[in-house]
């Protein structure tokens, strides 16, 4: 069994924001999500796909109990989240490592007691100034960014299914080098 977690904030006000790119990826999978506790959950291909209904910075509160209940080890957990350290148009698989300031990832690591889970980091680019980070992640993508975002979401959808079927290393080889900033 595996667990794929899309990070985001609940509610229409956040639906199209940069912080909700994890939800956007899971929405593309075409799965039937249903409410289960503090999450929307879908079961498919022998695993669970989860969109926590807690706020982004509290996602560990949903992930850890599910992982414990279903006895899912950290290396069978994939967290799909936005990443300011990557430009829009890039995505990157990663195993373990620090949260690098991402409070949602930190929440999961703290609740699980490990950073050994896998991540699919979706680039959203940096804010115009460091102190604008919180406002930036809660802002929507611009019209100019929409074509790039569409390509990224399509690739991320394929990347999630790749991870489910093949595991981290083959998918990292296939997707980490992609640059989807131009249409060519």
From TrEMBL:
Q: What is its main location?
A: cytoplasm
The record's subcellular location field reads: Cytoplasm
* Keyword annotations from UniProtKB, A to Z: Cytoplasm, Hydrolase, RNA-binding, tRNA-binding
Residues under site feature: Discriminates between blocked and unblocked aminoacyl-tRNA: 9
Question: Where on this chain does tRNA bind?
Answer: 14, 55, 57
One matching Pfam family is Pept_tRNA_hydro
Top-level division of the source organism's lineage? Bacteria
Key word tRNA-binding present in the record?
yes
Record-annotated active site:
19 (proton acceptor)
According to UniProt, the reaction catalysed is: an N-acyl-L-alpha-aminoacyl-tRNA + H2O = an N-acyl-L-amino acid + a tRNA + H(+)
What is the main EC category here?
hydrolase
Q: What is its EC number?
A: 3.1.1.29
UniProt feature coiled coil, ranges = none
Q: What HAMAP family does the entry give?
A: Pept_tRNA_hydro_bact
Instruction: Please describe the quaternary structure of this protein.
Output: Monomer.
Role description: Catalyzes the release of premature peptidyl moieties from peptidyl-tRNA molecules trapped in stalled 50S ribosomal subunits, and thus maintains levels of free tRNAs and 50S ribosomes. Hydrolyzes ribosome-free peptidyl-tRNAs (with 1 or more amino acids incorporated), which drop off the ribosome during protein synthesis, or as a result of ribosome stalling.
- What is the name listed in the Swiss-Prot or TrEMBL entry for this protein? Peptidyl-tRNA hydrolase
UniProt organism field: Thermus aquaticus (strain ATCC BAA-2747 / Y51MC23)
């Amino acid at each position: 069994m595996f667990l794929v977690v899309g990070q985001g904030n609940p509610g229409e006000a956040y639906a199209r924001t940069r912080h909700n790119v994890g939800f956007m990826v899971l929405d593309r999978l075409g799965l039937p999500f249903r409410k289960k506790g503090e999450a929307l959950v879908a079961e498919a291909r022998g695993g669970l796909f989860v969109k926590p209904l807690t706020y982004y910075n509290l996602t560990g509160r949903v992930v850890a109990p599910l992982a414990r209940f279903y006895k899912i080890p950290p290396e069978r957990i994939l967290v799909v989240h936005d990443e300011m350290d990557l430009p829009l148009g890039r995505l990157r698989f990663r195993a373990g490592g620090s949260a690098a300031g991402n409070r949602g990832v930190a929440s999961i690591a703290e609740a699980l007691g490990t950073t050994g889970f896998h991540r699919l980091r979706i680039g959203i680019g940096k804010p115009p100034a460091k102190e604008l980070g919180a406002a930036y992640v809660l802002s929507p993508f611009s019209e100019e960014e929409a074509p790039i975002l569409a390509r990224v979401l399509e690739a991320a959808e394929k990347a999630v299914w790749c991870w489910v079927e093949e595991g981290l290393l083959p998918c990292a080889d296939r997707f980490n080098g992609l640059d989807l900033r131009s249409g060519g």
